[in-house]
UniProtKB/TrEMBL annotation:
Region (Disordered): 412-437
One GO MF term attached to the UniProt entry: mannonate dehydratase activity
Annotated protein name in UniProt: Mannonate dehydratase
Biological processes, Gene Ontology terms: amino acid catabolic process
InterPro entries per UniProt: DgoD-like, Enolase-like_C_sf, Enolase-like_N, Enolase_C-like, Mandel_Rmase/mucon_lact_enz_CS, Mandelate_racemase_C, Mandelate_racemase_N_dom
Residue ranges of every copy of the Mandelate racemase/muconate lactonizing enzyme C-terminal domain listed in the record: 170-288
Pfam families: MR_MLE_C, MR_MLE_N
Keyword hit for Lyase: yes
EC code: 4.2.1.8
Keywords: Lyase
């Protein structure tokens, strides 16, 4: 085990890596707490690495410790602002965490959150989430236990998942749903191109001009689910992501029209700015509601959960700050009979998916796991990437989060332009008004 003098070398390493503000070196400040002892596993370095094996920027945080070979991994992915997150990890979190006990997860989370005085938001929370998950990983590995065991032990044998299907027309969408069903998935999220306009979650009409017509969308979608239900009823249950693309009154119109098709949930009927509408929407429809990937403060869920305004909370766990705040929310959700469906698209790294899986296994509030089938190249960067069998995930029992990171493989997939796949700031309504994503 290293002593504190050796540990300060960790801070020097951090300084060496500084590239954004090289003129200002971190001051040697002792951030240890009054109750530590010499036997503690100490943090010796904290760094963020960006890699894009799936075509989006995944931000990995690696925390090394004073115990030879003992390190933790966390997901700090905010694809669209990956460099900002890396800066927050390397420049701000690393210098104040080197030397601290790796097992003081809650105190590190609470103190890091207030360290900048202005706290939260997706950049700082993602950075903190990367550290937080890595500390849970380290603590599990130290104890020889999986993270789900640290959270109180599993409450289910396996975890049900859903995947995405999309099409440029109903026939193409049907083929994708059929393929999902053949692979064993019983719940599938369905998105489709709206003829003559762009869409969320399916191929765009064109790359240069992204027009969006909410009226056409609201009229078109119910017929699609009617056809899907006629073909797959009893075999597949559907989800749909509205992705904030309509005004609240139109959301109500659409949600009511979808009622006959028994969706497991409709997602993001309103933008975060319109959250107050959820009280009205809730009273107007029996379609189950899911929301939350854009909310970054766990307290934003207070009314949604305690007033049961949603059926599923959909936190993007890294944007929320990691396992520590998400687990607090899972407990609140359980108390109020709300379920969890943590956000799990391809811009959550396999490490983040393992964090979601650990909570899914241990939380009575678990609803469903959003699964992404990562490519072989992503799997080689992240050995242990979860794979489904018959649409479910089963835990491995490996200590910590149970996932690895091959930095050499990662280097073969350098960061990509954050806007290469997403066009949020160019989606406009027929009259030219910007559309929220
Ligand atoms: O998976 C979902 O529900 C999404 O909404 C995916 C988001 O659009 C994506 O993560 C944005 O980067």
């Amino acid at each position: 085990m290293k002593d504190i003098d050796q540990l300060s070398e960790g801070a020097a390493d951090v300084a060496d890596r500084r590239r954004i503000a090289p003129a200002y070196a971190p001051k040697a400040v002792d951030h240890t707490v009054p109750w530590g002892n010499d036997e503690d596993v100490r943090i010796t370095s904290v760094e963020a690495i960006i890699t894009a094996p799936e075509g989006v920027n995944l931000v990995v945080v690696r925390v090394r410790t004073s115990v030879d070979g003992l390190e933790g991994l966390g997901c700090a992915t905010f694809h669209q602002r990956a460099d900002a997150v890396k800066c927050a990890v390397d420049e701000y979190l690393a210098p104040r965490l080197v030397g601290r006990s790796a097992q003081e997860i809650t105190d590190i989370w609470n103190s890091s959150q207030v360290d900048s005085y202005w706290r939260g938001g997706p950049v700082l929370n993602s950075a903190l989430a990367g550290v937080d998950m890595a500390l849970w990983d380290i603590t599990g590995k130290t104890a020889g236990l999986p993270v789900w065991q640290l959270l109180g032990g599993r409450v289910r044998r396996s975890v049900a998942t859903y995947v995405h299907a999309s099409g440029r027309d109903v026939a193409e969408l049907m083929d994708e749903v059929e393929a999902c069903a053949a692979a064993g998935y019983q719940v599938v999220r369905c998105q489709i191109t709206v003829p003559g306009t762009s869409t969320y979650g399916a191929a765009q009409q064109s790359d240069s001009h992204i027009s969006w017509d909410p009226e056409q969308y609201v009229r078109f979608i119910p017929g699609v689910f009617e056809e899907l239900t006629a073909r797959f009823d009893g075999r597949v249950r559907f989800l749909h992501d509205i992705h904030e693309r309509v005004d609240p009154a139109d959301a109500i119109r659409l949600l009511r029209a979808l009622e006959p098709f028994g969706l497991l949930f409709a997602e993001d009927p309103v933008a975060p700015e319109d959250l107050d509408w959820m009280r009205t929407i809730r009273k107007q429809t029996i379609t189950p509601l899911a929301l939350g990937e854009l909310l970054t403060d766990m307290r934003s869920f207070n009314a949604l959960v305690t007033e049961r305004l949603v059926d599923f909370i959909r936190c993007h766990v890294s944007a929320l700050g990691g396992i520590t705040p998400a687990w607090r929310l899972a407990m609140l959700a359980e108390v109020h009979g709300v379920r969890t469906a943590w956000h799990g698209p391809r811009d959550v790294s396999p490490i983040g998916h393992m964090a979601n899986l650990a909570m899914d296994l241990a939380s009575p509030a678990f609803g469903i796991h959003e699964h992404f089938e990562f490519s072989d190249q992503a799997r080689s960067v992240f050995p242990g990437t979860p794979v489904t069998r018959n649409g479910v995930l089963e835990p491995s029992g490996a200590p910590g989060l149970g996932i690895g990171f091959d930095e050499r493989e990662a280097a073969r997939h350098p960061p990509v332009s954050p806007m290469s796949n997403w066009h949020y700031s160019r989606v406009r309504r027929p009259d030219g008004t910007i559309q929220r994503p």
